[in-house]
Amino acid sequence: VEKGVVWKVGKIFLNDDMLYRFDLLPEDGHKMPAFINLQQYYAEAFLVDRASELPQVDLRWRNKVVGLDQRNDHVVLAIDTPDGRYHLKADYVVACDGARSMLRGFVGAEFSGEVFEDQFLIADVKMTAEFPTERWFWFDPPFHSGQSALLHRQPDDVWRIDLQLGPDADPAVERLPENVRPRIERMLGHANFDFEWISIYKFQCRRMQRFVHERVIFAGDSAHQVSPFGARGANSGLEDAENVAWKLSMILRGDATATLLDSYEIERSAAADENIRASTRSTDFIAPHSAQERRMRQAILRLAKEAEFAKRMVNGGRLSTPSVYETPLSTPDTDVWAAGPRPGAQMIDAPLAAANGEPIYLTEAFRQGGGGFVLLHAGSDGGDQPGCHSIHIGETAPLRDASGLFAKRYDASKGAAYLLRPDGYVAARFRKPTAAAVQAAMARASGRAS
Fold first, then answer.
1. Are 201 and 120 in contact (CB under 8 A)?
2. Looking at residue 367, what is its pLDDT?
């Protein structure tokens, strides 16, 4: 967060005219911003630094998996190194080896979907600019007629520029700096910039049919691919990791059986389908395939200048949001709720105050729960439950809801409680929780429901 560029506002333009402005986090009182722009090389460097601090993590550079053998109760990996080959035994393998995954081939899985032929130019340019820190997207801008354009700020005065080129562009020609520079100069109106990176890309929306293959679990781009519109690729990969980590932890501790991984398949494959649908719709609007689709888009864009309802139809890339799971791990509501995250939805943050007056966010208090189940109590009543960490929020409780946002966002009348999974998703909620109901919901969320 400290290194990244924080933003929440986006603007959509047609030619030089702004069609509308959106705010992804219109209400204050959240620990984290709506979005953070951060170059991939920084993200990877931070992850490597953090991994090196953890004794449980062993980073092995210049090690390449060249074979995989699944046994009844473990997996054996064949690994090549400059010093020769060795074999590694594992209870489970999480395959995070990207879109060109070799492990996917080792289990004989297909990777099917749609290839989009339109090509796009990415140019990361370093410059001093006074543009606001917002996401700007143009349809048919005067500097790039008939196509689309995107402008985003990154750290270190680097700006990401994305220009649609169409299906017939020659990538070898278009990526030459002497050909890219005039395009960027027309966009910016000046030549005071340097190139950090230039690339031409086209993309695919595709996924594996199954993400879990016995003891090999696929996550991130190895399991699914989407277009870059909406930042759904990396974000969905992180959600995969959050989802599978706590489930594997419970299985390896003996607190759950291997069938808990069935819920990873259910939840994350549905999330992948949702992301592919959203990405495909964005792509179809940004780069229409047919004359009929182009006419429809132009009609919507023209109408959006005047009609509020048409603005909702303009699609310059729907931004990534956490999926809501329809999952057997959730306990269905039996009480009436006017608001709040329902079972299967991600928890919502809220500002709180500790007994000493120090501010603390709900997500911070959640992380102090030790990585297990957490029971949020509205009020100081309600005893601790075996197998989960309790957080009490109320006037006489250890945490105070001074702003009232916790009560508002969770529809949390006194005595209400929310059971949160280790990944921050709501497993169940109760107006008047009983020990038996909480324990049954925890068992269900752990895959142990009878």
1. yes
2. 95
Angle at 361 between CA 355 and CA 365, to 5 degrees: 75
| pLDDT the model gives residue 347 | 98
Structure tokens at 369: 């729960």
User: Scanning the structure block, which residue is given the tokens 């999974």?
Assistant: 421
What string of DSSP letters covers 342-360?
PTTSBP---EEEETTS-EE
Residue 102: how many CB atoms within 10 A of its CB?
A: 15
pLDDT at residue number 218: 98
Q: How many CA atoms lie within 13 A of 418 on its CB side?
A: 30
Structural domains of the chain sorted by starting position, each given as residue range(s) with its CATH number in brackets: 5-29+117-202 (3.30.9.10), 40-112+207-311 (3.50.50.60), 351-445 (3.40.30.120)
CB atoms within 10 A of CB 355: 10
Q: Which residues contact 202 (CB under 8 A, 6 or more apart)?
A: 115, 116, 117, 118, 119, 120
Pairing of strands 359-361, 351-354: antiparallel
Which pLDDT score is estimated for 289? 86
**pLDDT tens across 299-333, in order?**
999 999 999 999 999 999 889 999 999 999 999 99
Distance, in Å, from the CA atom of 362 to the CA atom of 427, rounded to the nearest integer, reads: 17
Sole residue written with tokens 């390449």: 64
Cα 207 to chain center, whole Å?
A: 16
Residues 6+ apart with CB under 8 A from 157: 126, 127, 128, 129
Sheet order of strands, 93-95 included = 93-95, 216-218, 212-213
Q: What is the pLDDT of residue 353?
A: 97
Sequential DSSP letters for 183-221: HHHHHHSS---EEEEEEEE--EEEE-S-SEETTEEE-GG
Place of tokens 């709506």: 34
The whole-angstrom separation of Cα 271 and Cα 25 is: 22
Measured between its terminal Cα atoms, the distance across the chain in Å is 43
Residue 129, classed as helix, strand or coil, is: coil
Torsion of CA 219, 222, 223, 228, to 10 degrees: 100
Taking 50 as the pLDDT cut, the residues of the chain under it are none
DSSP 8-state symbol, 331: P
442 sits in the region (left: phi over 0; alpha: psi -120 to 50; else beta) called: alpha
Tokens of 382: 């309600």
